[in-house]
Amino acid sequence: MLLVRRLSQTETNVAIVFYSGALASLASGTALPFVWQTPLWSDLPWLIAIGLVGGVAHLVLTQAFRLAPASTVTPFEYSGMIWAVLFGWLFWREVPDGAFYAGAVLVIGCGFYILRRETLHALRPADRLPGESAD
């Protein structure tokens, strides 16, 4: 979140989304030989929809971090976990287990800790170097 905010000062939204998508593809591609399953042709419309919606969502989120403080945008980003649980239950009747809740608490807790630390640091102008902005 904070990296996107800093990158938005020098890069376009499209560049940020492209590079983060390329990096994620390379990282997740390492598992490809072990887990690949050829999709059915009937899955193609769903895959296209997922790609389009995900791409637009990433662009919009990048723009949100460009325009607003991370402390304002972060709660909306974490709501994605709620949507994932809801859609998982609605479409596949999946119920999250204890590992999900433990991971969610860890991820959200760490995110809020970092956000709080960065917000407090931004409020202390004496700690900043000359010419360094509060963003």
Relevant terms:
single chain; 135 residues; mainly alpha; 6 helices; 74% helix; globular
Q: How large a portion of the residues is in β-strands, by DSSP E? A: under 5%
Taken from the alpha-carbon principal axes, the silhouette is globular
Rg result: 18 Å
Helix content: over 70%
> What is the number of E strands?
0
Helices and strands, in order, run as HHHHHH
- Average pLDDT rating: 85
Termini gap: 12 Å
Give start-end ranges of low-pLDDT stretches: none
Instruction: Characterize the largest beta sheet: strand count, sense, and whether it forms a barrel.
Output: none
Question: What is the SS-derived class?
Answer: mainly alpha
Number of helices: 6
Short recap of the structure:
This protein has 135 residues and is mainly α.
Can you tell me about this structure?
The protein contains 6 helices and no strands. It has helices at residues 2-7, 13-29, 32-35, 44-67, 70-92, 98-123. Helix 2 packs across helix 4 and helix 5 (70-92) packs antiparallel against helix 6 (98-123). The protein is globular and about 55 Å long.
Q: What's the structural blueprint in terms of helices and strands?
A:
Elements: H1 2-7, H2 13-29, H3 32-35, H4 44-67, H5 70-92, H6 98-123
Helix pairs in contact: 2-4, 5-6
